[in-house]
Amino acid sequence: MIRFEDVSVTYDGAAGPTVRGVDFEVPEGELVLLVGPSGVGKSTVLGAVSGLVPHFTGGTLSGRVTVAGRDTRTHKPRELADVVGTVGQDPLSHFVTDTVEDELAYGMESLGLPPQVMRRRVEETLDLLGLAPLRGRPIATLSGGQQQRVAIGSVLTAHPRVLVLDEPTSALDPAAAEEVLAVLQRLVHDLGTTVLMAEHRLERVVQYADRVVLLAGPGAAPVLGPPAEVMAVSPVRPPVVELGALAGWTPLPLTVRDARRRAAPLRDRLAHLSVPDPAPAPAALPAPRPAPTSRWRRRPASGAEAAPGYAAEVRGLAVRRGRVQALRQVDLTVSAGETIALMGRNGAGKSTLLGALVGLVEPAAGSVRAGGAVPHRTPPRDLVRRVGLVPQEPRDLLYADTVAAECRAADEDADAAPGTCRALLAELLPGVGDDTHPRDLSEGQRLTLALAVVLTARPPLLLLDEPTRGLDYAAKHRLVAHLRSLAARGHAIVLATHDVELAAELAHRVVLLADGEVIADGPTAEVAVASPAFAPQVAKVLAPQQWLTVAQVRKALA
Amino acid sequence: MAGSTGRAAPLHPGAWWLWALGLGTAATRTTNPLLLALLLAVSAYVVTARRPDAPWARSYGAFVKLALAVLVIRLVFAVVLGSPIPGTHVLVTLPEVPLPDWAQGIRLGGRVTAEGLAFALYDGLKLAALLVCVGAANALANPSRLLKSLPAALYETGVAVVVALTFAPHLIADVHRLRAARRLRGRPDQGLRGLLHVGLPVLEGALERSVALAAAMDCRGYGRAAEVPAAVRRTTAALTLGGLLGVCAGTYGVLTAEGGAYGLPVLAAGVAAALAGLWLGGRRSVRTRYRPDRWDARAWLVAGSGAAVAALLVLAGARDPAGLHPGVVPLVAPALPLWPAAACLLGLLPVLVTPAPDTPVAGPAGPGPDSVPDPEPAVRKPS
Q1: Cis (ω within 30 of 0) for the bond into B52?
Q2: Is it true that the peptide bond before A114 is cis, omega within 30 degrees of 0?
Q3: SS3 A280
């Protein structure tokens, strides 16, 4: 159905080809997963299928890509619209109209299908994706998972034979991701749709794949094979596969179920061992606070004495956003050196809570103290030294056009000694040139730069909003290492995340939010294992024992 | 599974526009504050009762504020600059600023008369009512559905326009987000400097989003064109270009003194040619329309009610000018002319003939299909 014949793509101005020697074929009705670290050209391969590469992006494509017998060299994306459906990373930038039903019909209108056919297909698609109750809703009011389903539905109505998806579940909470994947599964099984999908969160998708295409490095030729075989050689793999590799199971398990059926001996071995802490526990003795800066001395924080034990304290917090009650009666305390994961559905109020801690959101009731100050009443220059937030889109923090200028500005903003930020960045992310434009950095590098900028002011409380979106496993491991060492140095860290594996590796405590209320707050092992949606894979495999990460198991067995 | 929240065949947006323009026209025919207030109340009631909960429908508040601003400005001008209306009831005398000779005829300050203020109020109210009527149309008629009624040849351009319009809210959201982010860097998030500083990143973001949207639209078949014979293509181009040239020349002719003879015919021919070009151009477009709004009996009734209000007030203006334009010199309390008032109430007809808008599920994460409550456990029989 999709056929790559010795394809390489070189973008204008690039030193070498982005992908080279891509040569594989996807038969009809298969779900093929494209995996690999960031920056190896996964999006380029996907774009070549829909014809966006090179017609829209520019660059030179050598070799031949055919989709359902149509050569993409001679067919523009719009002429492939009836056979290829493409859904990008951000569903919001995909929508042309403003209501669900119109959006589903838009593609068919462009193709010029007769009105009766359109009507029938819209109804079918609404039912297939479970969107019928939402048909008249403005798209902007839908949740992330619903939007992603509408985006998929909007290309499905044209009855494409091929569906191309770029990270369809990255921005979604675990439940919404399941929802989307169930739909894909159904398409492949019931309609025989061919699906080609790229995704970083392998733990969510690898079990659904019929075959996997691995792009191991930039410009490396892809490896195609059954998932278990490819995972054995892949540099990126989900925890369940890591665990299988650690325990020496062959073939490697891909699902929790596979692994569990073979895990009995491993569980027996582990039963006698004690679970090492995933992250070194927050020091029982209060961790040293960062040295007070001159400003602190000049303006002694009024509340610093009041709650000396907590880096942040939230009592009875309520926040209203328009007519929506975003948070109600939230209590939360964060001690120095502690790492907390905020989890919950899209729209549960995680970002709002972080915003309240950093003074972006004004509480309607209750009190917030962060770093000894009331955030929304503290002038920004003062606040950066008490609490720092890396927003969901790290790019929002970066204004300058070179890394060096960004670092200089950060030093200035924080009244830090010149070179502080650059030194931090060199430590966190070696090998980034001074003249690089922040936009040219990869997702992970950009996040690290934003982190360095925030850390320049040495805030005792560090907040991160969805830090692993778009990060591959390597970048994630580096981030985990940074954050752990920060916590060991006494920084309190709060991260809002959908990534259960990240929470398992980092967090001492997990706080679950639902509908703006805290519904669970406790040690990671207890909260995560108690709820199937938020349990990491290792916990599911080794339950009822409270192992959370492969690293723990490896350490215990060593 | 047909959702109860399904669209109950909304009214043709053109009908709402005709209704609102009818009320607006009626408002321009009278300065009677009671009639104007009645027209305002009628349109406001219909908007409250029939406005859907959608982003574009929230513009009504903005129009009301604009109308109020117009009214206030008109009154302030009447107070400060005086009024040409002679009056005897002096309310207050402001200190008059002496102006040089060349500014003769302009007065700053001076006497403020009740007659002058009343005149300004009536006049301002007329303009405000017109604005509110336009706002009502904006709130009731979905702009993107109005677009569906465009000729096929203009549709793609129309989509571009609508997409561009939706960018404004996105841009504002971006500015808010980036200004908030300045706070995270320890810089003040208020003030002009902050706004200027985020300008470039905001534009960059907007550009990236447009490119992403363009790619998505391309993938979904935007701009697919049907094969048409070369002759038809050439004819289309010739007709459209020739027509537009004709319109230009004709307009010039109509506006200049010498061209009075050829102006009108050339203009008419130009318009005809351009329309023919549009119609032919539509054949290149393969688009079809999903559930286009039908111009049904309700649309006739709604549009008709607006037109009737306008026509009756025009008629009333001809029959009874005194009732529609209450005198200010001498100052008399305006009386409510009975049958023009009854005519205004015809504007309420849409409330009777159109369905109430859907009430959307509250909250962004509305109940999905997966949140079906568990069926009641079967009653256990005693064993």
Answers
A1: no
A2: no
A3: coil
Distances from the Cα of B91 to the Cα of A12, B86, B111, angstroms = 76, 13, 8
DSSP alpha helix (H) spans, A31-114: 42-50, 52-55, 100-111
Q: What sign has the CA pseudo-torsion B19, B25, B29, B30?
A: positive
Res B259: pLDDT: 60
Nearest to A235 by CA among A247, A248, A249, A218: A218
Mutation for B interface: A44, A52, A86, A97, most B CBs within 10 A: A97
DSSP 3-state assignment of A30?
coil
Is the separation of the CB atoms in A136 and B7 below 8 Å?
Answer: yes
C-alpha A64/C-alpha A155 separation (Å) is 24
H or E segment to which residue A519 belongs = strand A517-523
**Residue of B56, B200, B220 for testing the chain A interface, max A β-carbons within 10 Å:** B220
User: Would you call B1 and A359 a contact, using CB atoms and an 8 Å cutoff?
Assistant: no
Structure confidence at residue A381 (pLDDT): 87
User: In whole angstroms, what is the distance from residue B52 CA to residue A57 CA?
Assistant: 40
Q: Are the C-beta atoms of B325 and B123 separated by less than 8 Å?
A: no
Question: What's the pLDDT score for residue B364?
Answer: 40
- Chain A partners within 8 Å of B189 (Cβ): 380
Query: Which residues of chain B lie closer than 8 angstroms to A122, CB-CB?
Result: 290
Residues 6+ positions from A131 with CB-CB distance below 8 Å:
A100, A104, A125, A146, A149, A150, A153
- The predicted pLDDT at position A338 comes to 92
How many inter-chain contacts (A to B, CB under 8 Å) are there?
Answer: 208
CB contact under 8 A, A137 and B197: no
Instruction: Extract the residue ranges of chain B whose pLDDT is less than 50.
Output: 1-7, 360-383
With an 8 Å Cβ cutoff, are B287 and A132 in contact?
Answer: no
**Regions of chain A short of the pLDDT cut 70:** 277-309
Instruction: State the best of A50, A70, A78, A142 to mutate against chain B, taking most chain B CBs within 10 Å.
Output: A78
Query: Is A135 in Cβ contact with B183 (below 8 Å)?
Result: no
pLDDT of res. B126:
92
Q: What is the pLDDT of residue B382?
A: 40
List chain A residues with CB under 8 Å of B201: 395-396, 399
